[in-house]
Amino acid sequence: MSDWRARASRADKWPLRPGHTNGTEPAPEHSMDPRAEPGPHPVPLERSVVDAALYRDGRRIDTPTSLSEIYRQLPQPGTMAWIGLYRPSPAQLWEAAEQFGLHELAVEDAIVAHQRPKLERYDNTLFVVLRSARYIDETEEVDFGEIHVFIGPDFVLTVRHSQAPDLAVVRKRVEGDPELLAKGPEAVLYAILDAVVDGYAPVVAGLQHDIDEIETEVFGGDPKVSRRIYELSREVVDFQRATRPLLTITRGLQGGFQKYHTEEELQRYLRDVADHATTVAERVDSFRQALGDILTVNATLVSQAQNEEMKMLAEAGHAQNNEIKKISSWAAILFAPTLIGTVYGMNFDHMPELHWILGYPFAIALMAMVCVGLYLVFKRRDWL
Fold this sequence. Notes:
The chain is α+β, with helices and mostly antiparallel strands. The chain has twelve helices and seven strands.
C-alpha cells in the first residue's frame, strides 16, 4: 500500500465521512450539502454506479460489479477503467478515493459540488470540473449541470450531480472508436470535453433567438421587456461563468502536452475543442454586450415615451387652463350685471335714486359698460 493510501485509510485523516466526526461537528460545507447522508449506514456504492468498464487496447473487456474488482484487475498492463457515478454519497466517494488514491481536497470539492469549472493536478491525477448547459425550449431557460472528472494513469472516474451531460452517449461514442479509446484516459477526457462544448451550441442558438425576440419587443413598446432583458442577462452571465473557464482548462491541458507526452493526434483533438470553446466564449461575450446595448436603448425609449406622455399631459393641462380662463371670464362678466340688478332689486322705500326717472336706463348702461370693460380686459389678456 502506498504512503498516500496508508494516510487515506486513517479515519482522522478524512473527517467528512458520515458517522466519523471524531467528537467534532462536520465541516459547514458538508452539513449544508443536501446530498449529505447522515448516519452510519450509507447506501452501497454500486447503487450510484451508472456504468463501470475495463478496457484494453480500446475495447471493453469486462463490466465489473464493484470497485474492488476493478482495482484488482487494473495492474494488468494496458488496462484502463472508466467508472461513472451519479450523485454518490460522501461515504461512496471516500471509498472510491481509497481505491484510486484521490486527493482529499478534490474529493471534498466533488462532495460539496457547486464548483466553478477548473483544472487541477494532484501528482499523477487530474481533477477537472465542467459545467454543462442545455436550452429548454418550453420555458426559454438555460439549465446547467455539473460534472467532476478524475483522470489517473489507468482510470477515469466521473461524478455527476445532474442529468446532463449524458455520458452514456460519450461512452458509446468512444467505444465505437477503439483507436481513440486506446489512447488512454486523456482520450476519455477529450470526449467528455467535446460533448460538453458541443452541448453549448443549442444554448447559443437559443440565446441568440431570445435576444432577437427581445429586440423586436423593445421597439414594439412591450412594457414587460425590461424584466425579460434582466432575466436573460442573468442567464448569459451564468453561461459565461460556465464557458469562460474552459479557455483556462484547455490552455492548461495544452501546456502539459510536452511534459506528459500527449499523442500528437490527441493534441489536435484537444486543440479543436479549445477552438470551439473560444468561439462559444466569444459569442457569449457578444451576447452580454448586446444585452447591455439593448437595455440602454430600452431605457432611452422608455424615457422618450415618458417625455411624450409628460408633453401630452402638459398640453392637456394648458388646454384645460384656457377653458377655465374662458369660463371664469364669462362668469365675471355676468357677475357684474347680476350684482347691479341685485342692488336695484332690493325692496326698500328709502333708497338713493329709487324714484329717479333715469335710474333704469342708468342701471342698464352701467351693466353694459362694466360687461364691455371686463370683456375688453379679458380679451387683451387672451382669456377669451
